[in-house]
Design a protein that fits this description.
The structure holds two protein chains of two kinds.
Chain A (H helix, E strand, L loop, with lengths): L6 E2 L10 H7 L1 H4 L11 H21 L6 E4 L2 H16 L11 E5 L4 H12 L3 E5 L9 H7 L4 E5 L13 H11 L2 E5 L18 E5 L10 E5 L28 H39 L3 E3 L10 E6 L4 H7 L3 E2 L1 E2 L12 H5 L4 H4 L2 E5 L6 H20 L2 H7 L13
Parallel strand pairs in A: 1-11, 3-4, 3-5, 5-6, 6-7
Antiparallel strand pairs in A: 2-8, 7-8, 9-10, 10-13, 12-13
Helix pairs in contact in A: 1-8, 3-8, 4-5, 6-7, 8-12, 9-12
Chain B lengths: L4 H8 L10 H6 L3 E8 L4 E10 L4 E10 L2 H14 L4 H5 L3 H8 L6 H21 L17
Helix pairs in contact in B: 1-3, 3-6, 5-6
Classes of the chains: A alpha/beta, B alpha+beta.
Chain lengths: 412, 147
């Protein structure tokens, strides 16, 4: 079969739905369309069965119990509820007062974590944003150094969405447990791809979403620990009291069933997928590095997810490069691809210079990525970089031995 | 970013990519003016080189090299196309707004056209300086559309 173009290499942004997921969801649109809150007729019962199935699968995926799963609209809502909901519950002083409590997070968290933390800062909480090291991995030691007597919450992502780097979650969880501090992790890039056990990993609150793991968009889950300790949250949305009062609103049954199916499939297949994808990713990196000089793979060499690679190509600009590889759907840390016209804050935070941040591509593989796609991607990227370097005044200067950091640039 | 056909065309078939030798060689040649504008950390750097026919006073050839996004590449490619055959004064009057119009640059990419105009001005200034001609320091900053 000929290679179909374009090739999707952006699975960290979102994934296609598994056809088995879609199939599982379909009856819940037309036949089993009931409201799971309708306790007195069969339509309601059928819907509730769907929700029960989704809840059981979501719980099993992360080693939790069903009662610890709160369905949300996705990871952004889950992060907001976990962070603001726990801060308001465990605050040391009421709204309006100062010194309401201390929160530890990190500069390279997703905006859905950073912005709720910044909101809390405005509302009288103190937040420490850990500065990550050059390899992007947040360690328990770094968290330990940031803790204070009034720390109420630590929120550190499991794996970074731009770099794929994996933080020391289990150790951070253990540290928080010792100190009696609530530990939340945004596991959006991790859950469903890598083994997760909220008991062994010492997690109190865990967020993830279905659409990053071959499920539908618009549904996610938040794990809220019920024992040792029983974590409490202040609800952010009020109404019918669904999801044990944590999250009012009629349940998105079709979405929940889809998420459940995605979790069920992930439990059976993630190990195999991870091994295969790690090999494919290594192939891209090796191919690129062998054929091009002045390239850097960003983030820790080994402590990275099997399916995400982030590479900076010196002397070419990311958006220009994405145009050169227009048959490859991927993303870039370049300012020109962001609404803010600022290069990636994640790359900047780990000390990648602005210049190389502009020059980065993130390629993220998925369970249907093939060898042929990987080969095509590698050669397209290599050709694209060569084409742009032939056009790049910086590459000429580099080859002439001019130190670009010593040139007086006319900033505009 | 979804671009119009003219940007894509200039990006895919850039006109006049290159230079007239190494930085050193170009510096030594009085027929050549080089403009290097932008900064790597801003995500765009343009180098625009002109070669002037000193008998006629017209630009006989122009080359560019650009580190930047598709719009930056297209803007500089278009500028070199226009420069060929122009007198220095005609080149001096080239405006970024003309580039914006010709390429239908989206508003967030107007700075790319500004950079191309700056590169042309810098190349002209370099040529004039080398040849002891008065450098026009007329400030066109106010003319930049949306910059």
């Amino acid at each position: 079969m000929p290679l179909q173009l374009p090739i999707y290499m952006d699975h960290a942004a979102t994934t296609p739905c598994d056809p088995r997921v879609v199939e599982a969801m379909l009856p819940y649109f037309t036949e089993k369309f009931g409201n799971s809150g309708s306790r007195n007729h069969s339509f309601g019962w059928a819907a509730e069965e769907g929700a029960d199935y989704g809840r059981e699968m979501a719980a099993r995926l992360i080693g939790a119990t069903e009662k610890e799963i709160i369905f949300t609209s996705g990871a952004t809502e889950g992060n907001n509820l976990a962070i603001k909901g726990s801060a308001y519950m465990y605050q040391k002083a009421p709204a309006g007062a100062a010194k309401r409590g201390h929160i530890v997070s990190c500069l390279i968290e997703h905006k859905a974590v950073l912005d709720p933390c910044k909101r809390l800062q405005k509302e009288g909480f103190d937040v420490t944003f850990i500065e990550p090291p050059a390899d992007g991995v947040v360690t328990a030691e770094m968290v330990k150094n940031a803790l204070r007597d009034d720390t109420i919450l630590v929120t550190i992502m499991w794996a970074n969405n731009e770099l794929g780097t994996i933080n020391e979650v289990r150790q951070i969880g253990s540290l928080c447990k010792e100190r009696g501090i609530i530990f939340h992790t945004d596991a959006t890039q991790w859950a469903g791809k890598m083994p997760t056990d909220v008991e062994a990993d010492n997690i109190d609150l865990l967020t993830w979403s279905a659409h990053k793991m071959y499920g539908p968009k618009g549904v996610g889950a938040l794990y809220v620990r019920r024992h040792r300790p029983r974590v409490r949250l202040q609800a952010l949305q009020e109404g019918g009291g669904q999801e044990r009062g944590f999250r009012s609103g009629t349940l998105n049954i079709s979405g929940i069933v889809g998420m459940g199916k995605a979790c069920e499939i992930a439990m059976a297949e993630m190990e195999h997928d991870a091994i295969r994808l790690a090999k494919l990713k290594a192939k891209i990196e090796a191919g690129v590095l062998a054929q091009l000089d002045s390239c850097v793979v960003n983030g820790h060499k080994d402590k990275r997810l099997p399916h995400i690679t982030n590479i900076s190509f010196g002397f070419v600009e990311g958006e220009g490069l994405m145009m050169a590889v227009k048959d490859i759907a991927c993303s870039s840390g370049s300012a020109c691809t962001s609404a803010s016209l600022e290069p990636s804050y994640v790359l900047k935070s780990i000390g990648v210079g602005d210049e190389l941040a502009h020059s980065s591509l993130r390629l993220s593989l998925g369970k249907w990525t093939t060898d042929e796609q990987v080969e095509h991607t590698t050669s397209a990227v290599v050709q694209g970089v060569k084409k742009l370097r032939a056009m790049s005044p910086l590459y000429d200067m580099h080859k002439e031995g001019i130190d670009l950091s010593k040139v007086q640039w006319a900033h505009h | 970013m979804a671009y119009g056909p003219k940007i894509i065309d200039h990006y895919e078939r850039p006109r006049n990519v290159g230079n007239f030798g190494t930085q050193e060689a170009m510096k030594a040649d009085k027929k050549i003016g080089v403009g290097l504008v932008g900064a790597p950390e801003c995500g765009d750097v343009m180098q625009l080189c002109i070669k002037v026919d000193q008998a006629t006073g017209k630009i006989e050839d122009a080359k560019f090299k650009t580190f930047g996004c598709g719009s930056a590449i297209a803007s500089s490619s278009l500028a070199t196309e226009w420069l060929k055959g122009m007198s220095l004064d005609q080149a001096q009057d080239l405006r970024n707004t003309q580039i914006v119009e010709e390429l239908s640059l989206p508003p967030v990419k107007i700075h790319c056209s500004v950079l191309a105009e700056d590169a042309v001005k810098a190349a002209l200034a370099d040529y004039r300086k080398k040849n002891g001609l008065p450098v026009e320091d007329h400030d066109h900053a106010g003319d930049h559309a949306g910059a």
